[in-house]
């Protein structure tokens, strides 16, 4: 069992009820049984899932991490890998991931930085047991933050990252495939027979250093105005709780 926090961009987050509550409800339905969780993407902290509180309550939760074969990923996992029960690193399209094995898949800060998003999601959904939950947190291609991230030269991205997230490996590639948006995720879920139980959005830009944070906010607002709201600046991440039906032939109406 692991209750470790991460030295990652989100390490200061506390429990996020959006994810922690459905996870807790799922665990309570499995009284007397161990629960297995696959964390896809090593950047987000397990703290936001409330696993620590569940562990203190006597619930057994095993955690496996899986992420792409990337130098920054290896650096993060080198620092945090001992916190997991198992670690899988490789091409997310082909890396061996046990299928129909995990009760929960927590995919955070991953889809915006990888290619072949639908194929990666297929692998993760396939790893879920019937009735399992996919907790998804991702950047949004159609927000001003994502457009700015894609447009900035790499030296500028690195300079901004180092000041907003000091001591944390990054930045990762800014890929943001077309399906990494609310419409894309909704379409994917519909086509795969998955049920979106909850959806949300949030703004995560750090407040410090204040001058840089303010400059980034102003730039994002300007992008939104110049694109006439096509790229909005009210959020930079999308949140989903997605359920895999018990019956693989079930249709979503």
Description:
The chain has 253 residues and is α/β, with parallel strands linked by helices. The chain has a domain of 163 residues: Vaccinia Virus protein VP39 (Rossmann fold, 3-Layer(aba) Sandwich), CATH 3.40.50. It contains eight helices and seven strands. The chain has a seven-stranded mixed beta sheet, sandwiched between helices. Helix 4 links the parallel strand 4 and strand 5. The longest helix is centred in the last third of the chain and has 17 residues. The chain is globular, with a radius of gyration of 18 Å. The N terminus is likely disordered.
SSE arrangement:
Layout: H1 17-28, E1 35-40, H2 51-56, E2 61-67, H3 71-80, E3 86-89, E4 102-108, H4 117-127, E5 128-139, H5 144-151, H6 154-164, H7 182-191, E6 195-202, H8 210-226, E7 237-243
Parallel strand pairs: 1-2, 1-4, 2-3, 4-5
Antiparallel strand pairs: 5-7, 6-7
Helix pairs in contact: 5-8
Say how many strands there are: 7
How many strands, what sense, and barrel or not for the largest sheet?
A: 7 strands, mixed
Name the CATH superfamily assignment of the domain at 17-139 and 172-203 and 236-243. Answer: Vaccinia Virus protein VP39
CATH architecture of the domain at 17-139 and 172-203 and 236-243: 3-Layer(aba) Sandwich
Compute the gyration radius: what is it? 18 Å
Percent of residues in helical segments? 25-40%
Question: Which fold name fills CATH's third level, the topology of the domain at 17-139 and 172-203 and 236-243?
Answer: Rossmann fold
Structural class, please? alpha/beta
Principal-axis shape: globular
**Could you tell me how far the N terminus lies from the C terminus, measured between alpha carbons in angstroms?**
38 Å
pLDDT under 50 segments (min length 5)?
1-12
Helices and strands, in order, run as HEHEHEEHEHHHEHE
Task: Please state the oligomeric state of the protein chains shown.
Answer: single chain
Average residue pLDDT: 88
Main sheet: which strands, in order across?
3-2-1-4-5-7-6
């Amino acid at each position: 069992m692991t209750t470790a926090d991460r030295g990652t961009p989100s390490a200061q987050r506390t429990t996020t009820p959006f994810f922690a509550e459905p996870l807790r409800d799922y665990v309570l339905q499995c009284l007397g049984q161990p629960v297995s969780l696959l964390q896809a993407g090593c950047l987000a902290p397990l703290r936001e899932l409330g696993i620590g509180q569940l562990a203190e309550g006597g619930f057994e939760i095993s955690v496996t991490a899986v992420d792409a074969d990337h130098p920054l990923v290896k650096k993060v996992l080198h620092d945090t890998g001992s916190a997991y029960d198992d670690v899988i690193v490789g091409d997310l399209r082909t890396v061996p991931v046990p299928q129909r094995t995990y009760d929960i898949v927590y995919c955070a800060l991953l889809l915006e930085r990888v290619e072949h998003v639908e194929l990666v999601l297929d692998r993760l959904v396939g790893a879920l047991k019937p009735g399992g939950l996919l907790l998804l947190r991702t950047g949004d291609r159609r927000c001003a933050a994502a457009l700015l991230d894609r447009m900035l030269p790499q030296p500028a991205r690195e300079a901004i990252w180092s000041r907003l997230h000091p001591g944390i490996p990054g930045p990762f590639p800014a890929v943001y495939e077309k399906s990494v948006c609310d419409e894309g995720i909704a379409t994917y879920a519909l086509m795969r027979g998955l049920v979106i139980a909850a959806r949300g959005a949030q703004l995560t830009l750090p407040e410090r250093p204040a001058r840089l944070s303010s400059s980034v906010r102003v730039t994002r607002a300007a992008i939104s105005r110049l694109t006439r709201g096509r790229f909005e600046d009210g959020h930079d991440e999308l949140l989903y709780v997605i359920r895999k039906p018990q019956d693989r032939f079930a249709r979503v109406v």
